[in-house]
Design brief:
Elements: H1 2-11, E1 15-20, E2 26-36, E3 40-45, E4 50-55, E5 59-64
Antiparallel strand pairs: 1-2, 1-5, 2-3, 3-4
């Protein structure tokens, strides 16, 4: 999954993500990945309209956004 996120950063591609938040709830987000480290993803969240940091271990699934108007 880390490789896909790095590719999305490099290509400035939006991704959809299913994430397990700190309360144990699953959330769906559309993101513009900015930077990936060994443990975190820094991204601009299109839902919150703000930068966010996500723990890689809590990312359950990602997929590229093919149609930018689907945000």
């Amino acid at each position: 999954m880390k490789k896909e996120l790095e590719r999305a950063c490099k290509n400035h591609q939006l991704v959809r993500m299913i994430y397990l938040d700190q309360n144990g709830q699953t959330t769906k987000r559309t993101l513009r990945p900015l930077h990936v480290t060994n443990h975190h993803l820094k991204a601009y969240c299109m839902v919150r309209r703000a930068p966010r940091v996500f723990a890689l271990e809590n990312i359950l699934a990602i997929e590229p956004v093919v149609n930018r108007h689907a945000v």
